[in-house]
Structures are given as structure tokens and as C-alpha cells.
């Protein structure tokens, strides 16, 4: 077992369990607004101050987007290898398209030229068809336009990374300029979310979190994890009320969302602590030691971030995505690993800044469900649909309160983990009743008050 020790104060972190996200990321939308390429310049934009009705218009057509991409020439801070001048020197196959035929022909052309591996090209065509069907299902009058513009940019980003591979550092900060990967992800997932049938639980606690972040406190969200789209769904449901959280949330991310070509561009738009998932640690035994060392570096980065205060970190201590019960086909939050919860708790407690741990529940598996079984190979088939989603948070749970009622530290760790999991499950069931049970806000209970903050 490897440990990480940090001086003053000393932190010893067991790596017996690995932290995992997806996906995204996960990190990740269009219909309100409909187009996805955004570029930042100078002042921070106030995109999140826009009301939902202002997001109803289509943003940019393909031609103006292409001109903006080609004009980019600055260098991304923090990554010497990622030079944005390269934007002008690679294929513009997918930004030229005006029809579905041209888009699909572009995939085949790049595959025949050997630029796109055949399995990736097949995955792109499959994703296009699934995304098209989902957006049409939303009933948007501009569905065809939305699909073509969004998928053109997705394939443009996939091809760009194939030709000029991006490597993630242990702590990856979202790439926002010259190409805004964050808004790219938001705009791609947006038309897949049925906001009329989506809810946020206990929004007042998100306001509390923002106040604490402003005071220099750290926030840790212990959450279940459902899809690669989780980061975008979280941000979309919070963007009108809590833009700081939506944009600054840091996700503990498994390596698969950093390497899968169809997921990678969305991950580039999220703040990530990059780790190797425990579930895939020994897929290649020769790489296991390298993965352990990489996880140690990532954990050190997280500790340094927490020392600085004002950080909000999301972690799924189940080690992966929720999956349905094979017998009942019912979805539920996967059980949490006590070792992962305890590692995160100790990192927060020893940061030197006040820290708070909140249990958070997500329900969005219909939008982009994972494969029914954990897969070793990169390149899973992606199913996509239009559906309601839910997010809820409950009051923080104090470890010291749990310890006081337990006989020994090991018992306290298990009890604390179970208390967090029970809260997440309770919130999840409320969201499930509201969304799948069609109860809407009436599904609220005293501990979970549902609202639609975008109305």
C-alpha cells in the first residue's frame, strides 16, 4: 500500500482505494442556446447571469465559428505543449459542413485517409445518430440545425485531438480560451435535458456553499455518479443561481474520461483531479505501479489546492458510475467505499482551512447511461436521450458527531460513510419520485425541498 505524506501538517493518505468520476466527463450541450463554440477575451463573461429565456436563441452559425477558430493564436497558460496557434494548421473538415450528408461523408473521408481509426469513425457515426434522435425527441423546432452545428463542433474537436493529442496534468484547469471547452460541453448537453421535468433539491444550501467559499472555506461534495454527462448536468442545473459553483467545481476524474477520444474534449472543459480508477488499476499489470505513483501525485495536488482554501471538490467514493440492479433493472446509488470517504475527509481536515462535507445526489442516467457492465476496453458505445435530471444536496454531516457515538475509529469510518450514503440515497429517491414518478415538486419531503431555479 502506498501512502502520501505531506509536511506541516502531516497527511498520510492511503491509496488503497481510487477516486473516480466519469464523465465526462463529466465536464459535457445546446438548445438554449443551440450552438457550442465560444471564445473568451478579456473580462470574464456573465453567461450565467442570463435567464433561461435568453438562452433560447441559436448562438453562432458554422461560418462565423470557423473564422473565430482560425483567428485564435494565443497560448494556453499552464501547458507549454498546448499551443493554440495549432488551431489554424489542421483539418477543418467538420466546420465546413452544411448538411448531414457532408458531416457523415467527412467522417468517412478522414477514416479513408487514415486520420481517424475505423473504430473511432464508427463510434462517431453512432453518436451522431443517437444524438440526432434525442434532440428530435425534445420537440425543438430547430432540432436539425442544433444537431448539425453541435455535432460538427464535437467532431472538429475530436479530430483536432487526434491530430494534436492533449495530455492532462494531475490537476487540470478547464480550458476556456481561445476555444471555450467549458461552454462547448454545456451547449452539447443542454438540449438533452428536459428542464420542464428537472429539479434541484435544497438550493439554499448551494447559496450557503458559495458564501463559505467566499470566506476561504473548502467544500467537499460526496456524491453518487451516473454518467459521463454528470459535470455538465450539475452546471446546467446550477448556472442560473450558483454560477461560481457551476464553473469552479473540481471533479475527481478517472483516467477513462481522459483517454476516450469521444469523451476527452468534454473533459478538457472541466476542472479535474486526474486519477487512475481502482476498477481498472490492474487491467495491464505492468502499468499498475505507474498508476499508483500518478495517483500519489494527484492526491498531492489536491492537498495543495485545499491548503489554499476556497475550493469545491466533487468525488464519487463508489469508484465508478451507478448501474441498475440486474434483476429489477432499478437504478440506485452504488455503495460508497469507506476508505475513499476517509481519505477525502482527512485531506480536508488537515488542509488548514475550514472544510465542510456535504452529501449530494444526482439523477440523470437516462441522458447518457453507461454500459450495463464495467468494460476494460476504451471506446464504449454511447446511448443518448432527452430526459429530466435532478440534483440535490443535504446539510453537511460532521464526522465528530459520528465518532462520539462509536466505539472505535474503524467503526466511526464505516458509520460516517453509511450516514453520507443514506443521505444521498434519500435524496435520490425524492428526485426519482419527482422525475420518474411524475410527482414534480410534490415529491418534496421535510429534508429535501425541490424547485426549478431556472423558472
Give the helix level as a range of percent: 25-40%
The unreliable regions are 1-83
Termini separation comes to 50 Å
CATH superfamily of the largest domain: Glycerol-3-phosphate (1)-acyltransferase
**Order of helical and strand elements:** EEHHHHEHEHEHHEHHEHEHEEHHE
How many domains? Answer: 2
**How would a crystallographer describe the biggest sheet?**
9 strands, mixed
The amount of beta strand, in percent, is 5-15%
GO molecular function: glycerol-3-phosphate O-acyltransferase activity
Keywords: Acyltransferase, Chloroplast, Lipid biosynthesis, Lipid metabolism, Phospholipid biosynthesis, Phospholipid metabolism, Plastid, Transferase, Transit peptide
Subcellular location: Plastid, Chloroplast stroma
Pathway: Phospholipid metabolism; CDP-diacylglycerol biosynthesis; CDP-diacylglycerol from sn-glycerol 3-phosphate: step 1/3; Lipid metabolism
Note down, in words, how this protein is organized:
The N terminus is likely disordered. The chain has a nine-stranded mixed sheet with strand order 3-7-6-8-5-9-10-4-11, with helices on both faces. The protein has two domains: 76 residues, Glycerol-3-phosphate acyltransferase, alpha helical bundle, N-terminal (Non-ribosomal Peptide Synthetase Peptidyl Carrier Protein, Chain A, Orthogonal Bundle); 286 residues, 3-Layer(aba) Sandwich (Glycerol-3-phosphate (1)-acyltransferase). The N and C termini lie far apart (50 Å). It is an alpha/beta fold. Helix content is 38%, strand content 11%. The chain contains 14 helices and eleven strands. A hairpin with a 4-residue loop joins strand 1 and strand 2.
Amino acid at each position: 500500500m502506498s501512502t502520501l505524506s505531506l509536511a506541516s501538517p502531516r497527511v498520510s493518505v492511503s491509496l488503497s482505494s481510487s477516486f473516480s468520476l466519469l464523465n465526462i466527463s463529466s465536464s459535457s450541450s445546446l438548445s438554449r442556446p443551440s450552438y457550442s463554440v465560444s471564445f473568451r477575451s478579456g473580462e470574464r463573461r456573465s453567461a450565467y447571469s442570463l435567464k433561461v429565456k435568453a438562452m433560447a436563441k441559436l448562438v453562432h452559425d458554422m461560418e462565423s465559428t470557423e473564422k473565430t477558430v482560425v483567428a485564435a493564436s494565443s497560448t494556453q497558460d499552464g501547458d507549454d505543449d498546448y499551443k493554440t496557434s495549432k488551431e489554424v494548421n489542421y483539418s477543418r473538415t467538420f466546420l465546413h459542413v452544411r448538411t448531414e450528408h457532408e458531416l457523415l461523408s467527412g467522417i468517412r473521408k478522414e477514416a479513408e485517409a487514415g486520420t481517424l481509426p475505423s473504430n473511432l469513425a464508427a463510434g462517431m457515426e453512432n453518436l451522431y445518430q443517437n444524438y440526432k434522435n434525442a434532440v428530435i425527441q425534445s420537440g425543438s423546432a430547430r432540432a436539425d440545425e442544433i444537431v448539425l452545428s453541435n455535432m460538427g463542433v464535437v467532431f472538429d474537436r475530436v479530430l483536432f485531438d487526434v491530430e494534436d493529442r492533449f495530455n492532462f496534468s494531475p490537476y487540470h484547469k478547464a480550458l476556456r480560451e481561445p476555444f471555450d471547452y467549458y461552454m462547448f460541453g454545456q451547449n452539447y448537453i443542454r438540449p438533452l435535458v428536459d428542464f420542464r421535468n428537472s429539479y434541484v433539491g435544497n438550493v439554499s444550501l448551494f447559496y450557503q456553499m458559495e458564501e463559505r467559499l467566499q470566506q476561504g472555506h473548502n467544500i467537499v461534495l460526496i456524491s453518487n455518479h451516473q454518467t459521463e454527462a454528470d459535470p455538465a448536468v450539475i452546471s446546467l442545473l446550477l448556472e442560473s443561481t450558483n454560477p461560481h459553483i457551476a464553473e469552479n467545481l473540481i471533479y475527481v476524474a478517472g483516467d477513462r474520461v481522459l483517454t476516450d477520444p469521444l469523451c476527452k474534449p468534454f473533459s478538457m472543459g472541466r476542472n479535474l483531479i486526474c486519477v487512475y480508477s481502482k476498477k481498472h488499476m490492474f487491467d495491464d499489470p505492468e502499468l499498475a505501479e505507474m498508476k499508483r505513483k500518478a495517483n500519489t501525485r494527484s492526491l498531492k495536488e489536491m492537498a495543495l489546492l485545499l491548503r489554499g482554501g476556497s475550493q469545491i471538490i466533487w468525488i464519487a467514493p463508489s469508484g465508478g458510475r451507478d448501474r441498475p440492479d440486474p434483476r429489477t433493472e432499478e437504478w440506485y446509488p452504488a455503495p460508497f467505499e469507506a476508505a475513499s470517504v476517509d481519505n477525502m475527509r482527512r485531506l480536508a481536515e488537515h488542509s488548514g482551512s475550514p472544510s465542510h462535507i456535504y452529501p449530494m445526489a444526482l439523477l440523470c442516467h437516462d441522458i447518457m447511461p453507461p454500459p450495463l457492465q464495467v468494460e476494460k476496453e476504451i471506446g464504449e458505445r454511447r446511448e443518448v436521450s432527452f430526459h429530466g435530471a435532478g440534483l440535490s444536496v443535504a446539510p453537511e454531516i460532521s464526522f465528530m458527531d459520528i465518532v462520539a457515538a462509536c466505539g472505535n475509529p474503524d467503526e466511526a469510518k464505516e458509520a460516517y460513510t453509511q450516514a453520507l450514503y443514506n443521505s444521498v440515497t434519500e435524496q435520490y429517491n425524492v428526485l426519482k419520485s419527482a422525475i420518474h414518478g411524475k410527482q414534480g415538486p410534490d415529491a418534496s419531503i421535510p429534508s429535501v425541498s425541490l424547485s426549478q431555479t431556472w423558472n
